[in-house]
């Protein structure tokens, strides 16, 4: 199976649709509101997740709801979803269930968001700009499916599709990392570019629509 995936990836790389990039120091810019621009991230390994840690940095001036990270499986469109309802109100979904975390609304942009979740206790921990904003529980005992479409820029309501322009992301995203274990977030700090499932320094991705890669403006 792994050989097959590597083979498909190799063919896709040859055809120019999928690239592996060292994105260190770079950001994806989503310059306009659309329902067509997105970046699809291809995980290094497709394994179900009993635990995970997700870190991401973003800048936006949106005041409407928007998606930051959309991980969908064939059975659950919000298998993992990081979503902003409004300024200062962050939603984390696991297996289509959600919990909210409140943070100050006057935070200086950009933001560095880190969340982790463990199946054993169901506990999710939420950090923003190096500060903890509490722990909540959801989907205790659940296992996140590994055959996923992982999308930046749009929110999936089906496997790899059904985007809503009014939930799209406009702004910049960089330093995205996903680990298949709980990383003590205190230890992540700025090293949020070396996940073992999604690694920003060896990022396998496919860009669609109006997405531009540029050197990042912020650290
Ligand atoms: Ca959805």
From TrEMBL:
Residues 24-219 form the Pentraxin (PTX) domain. Disulfide bonds join 55-114. Its main location: secreted. Its cofactor is Ca(2+). Homopentamer. Pentaxin (or pentraxin) have a discoid arrangement of 5 non-covalently bound subunits. CDD domains: PTX. GO terms for cellular component: extracellular space. This is Pentraxin family member. Pfam families: Pentaxin (PF00354). PANTHER family: C-REACTIVE PROTEIN-RELATED, MUCOSAL PENTRAXIN-RELATED. SMART domains: PTX. GO terms for molecular function: complement component C1q complex binding; metal ion binding. The gene is Mptx2. GO terms for biological process: acute-phase response; innate immune response. It is found in: Secreted. Binds 2 calcium ions per subunit. Belongs to the pentraxin family. Residues 1-19 form the signal peptide. Keywords: Calcium, Disulfide bond, Metal-binding, Secreted, Signal.
